[in-house]
Amino acid sequence: MEMCRDEDALEIRDLDPFLAELLRQIPASTNAEGTEAAERRLFTSPAAETESELCAEWKVYVQPELRRLFSRATETVAADLQQLDGNTKPFANCTLRIPTRNAEAWLNALNQARLVIATKCNFTDSELCDHYRSPIGSRRDLSLFQVNFYGFLQEWMLRELGSL
Amino acid sequence: MTGLPWQRGNKAMPNDAAQSKTGCAILEAECALETPGLEQESKIEQAVDLPWQVVVHNDPVNLMTYVTMVFQKVFGLPRERAEQHMLEVHQKGRSVLWSGMRERAELYVQQLHGYLLLATLERAV
Prior knowledge:
heterodimer, A: 164 residues, mainly alpha, 3-stranded antiparallel β-sheet, 57% helix, B: 3-stranded antiparallel β-sheet, 5 helices, 54% helix, disordered N terminus
């Protein structure tokens, strides 16, 4: 796999089928529905419970705006990922081109996905710091690999965009 | 990406009317009293004078580099200052990023939530 910046786009070339599949799963991974803890993590309280009026108004006026923001980011990523669906050979390596104008949406969607997966799996701090665990052992190990892979992509995007 | 509230070049909240309502809620409630006593007057003064703090809390998932980038974008901090706050969050569990009027603090917290950081508003003590 080769990752580089090409003028107005970030490119992941020679992307193997396993990692391509992990990328395809980003939009679905952002879905927190059905898991109350994950939903609570995406839409956190703006203040202590004692500020009940503020918290109540936040739910009514701000949360819908945040929900739309997260949804737009996920939709942008899903549209970019359609590039990975055109392969005639399902196990061939492929290239993903991410326009830099969409980088903010990618950072957001990757973060949503990482938070939702980590909350659903209830990863411990030490697990989240274990960057060398094989993804093959179990579904939980695969999820941890997914969280770390998405984090790696975030770091790479930030570096390429000059934020690091 | 278009449509992000903090990329629109203005500081207006998405629901201006609603937000100004929240910002003035305490004042309106207190001012509705016709003859406030000393204790009530004191509450009014507190509501007017006490600044609010924007606090960011530690989170094991968000990357340190990502948090630094968010602080730079939302608060316009230079890299070094943003990293100092990020490290304070990481090491002490929280950092006060800003304090001042409630409406502005609400806007900052909304922006931070938009980046999925754990952020809260607190009354300054």
